[in-house]
Write a structure and sequence with these properties.
It contains 9 helices and 6 strands; from the N terminus they run αβαβαβααβαββααα. It is of the alpha/beta class and about 260 residues long. The chain is globular.
């Protein structure tokens, strides 16, 4: 699977790809993300992160102690989505099962976005709803999303700075509907490495083509820039922040005493 469609580069030998796959395997073990008999729908947007996730799970399946099924699921936002052509050509070439689901997300956002709200946040909720519906109706018991380490860290800081809460993403989350389970196997993978993996494997990375790109959440951009500045002085700051999410000392936090 690693060699299919990949670029030959002297001395590289898919070093980053192997690193990403190893980290995905570690996350699966640490958080019990995959069980025997799972049917996993991988949300494939066409970006570097979702492509890296898909091929990591496919590669790990070849030597995993459990059996699981994988299907790539892409949400198309218009009837003439040219991104799909290159994506489906690669999926077909590698014999990967996939489904494309149409949803006119731009129109929904335009009709329901309130002043001051983030189109990215609303888009994410809509996409999640579409994926939930597909998974439930088609018998896929887990949905794999391509959120990486940077997403986890940025989300924690966004909640800390702007919402006054200590809250982040979870590598494994049971959805509110009680029917779906979301997994995020890229939790240990840095964003820069999904980009390198996509390049090493010659994956057809496509931009989402979002019409709201100029309105991307300015707070998230600010947090991303802040983390970049911090890394200049503290090279492992993202790893430290990620580790802190699993090392919470309850008795050293502010916990109000319930009034009688």
């Amino acid at each position: 699977m690693l060699n299919s469609g990949a670029k030959e580069k002297s001395g590289v030998k898919f070093s980053t790809t192997k690193k990403v796959i190893k980290l995905v395997g570690r996350a699966i073990g640490d958080f019990s993300l995959i069980d025997d008999g799972d049917r996993i729908a991988v949300a494939l947007s066409g970006g570097k992160d979702s492509w890296s996730l898909l091929y990591s799970l496919l590669d790990l399946r070849k030597r995993a102690p459990v059996n699981y099924e994988i299907c790539a699921v892409t949400i198309s936002t218009n009837d003439k989505d040219n991104r799909l052509k290159k994506m489906t050509e690669r999926l077909d070439a590698d014999g990967i099962a996939y489904r494309s689901i149409f949803c006119d997300i731009p129109s929904i956002i335009s009709n329901h976005l309130s002043d001051g709200s983030s189109p990215c946040s609303l888009c994410s909720r809509i996409r999640r709803g579409v994926l939930y519906s597909f998974a439930s109706s088609d018998g896929w018991n887990k949905i794999a999303l391509g959120h990486h380490m940077d997403d986890f860290v940025e989300t924690l800081l966004l909640n800390l700075f702007f919402n006054g809460s200590i809250k982040c993403m979870s590598p494994k989350l049971a959805a509110d509907d009680g029917k779906n389970v979301v997994i995020r196997p890229l939790v240990y993978v840095r964003e820069e490495n999904t980009a390198k993996m996509a390049e090493e494997m010659g994956l057809p990375v496509e931009a989402c083509g979002c019409i709201f790109q100029t309105e991307v959440d300015s707070k998230r951009r600010w947090v991303k820039k802040l983390l970049g500045q911090l890394e200049n002085e503290i090279p492992n700051v993202k790893n430290s922040i990620l580790s802190s999410m699993g090392r919470v000392f309850d008795r050293h936090l502010l916990k109000r005493v319930a009034k009688m």
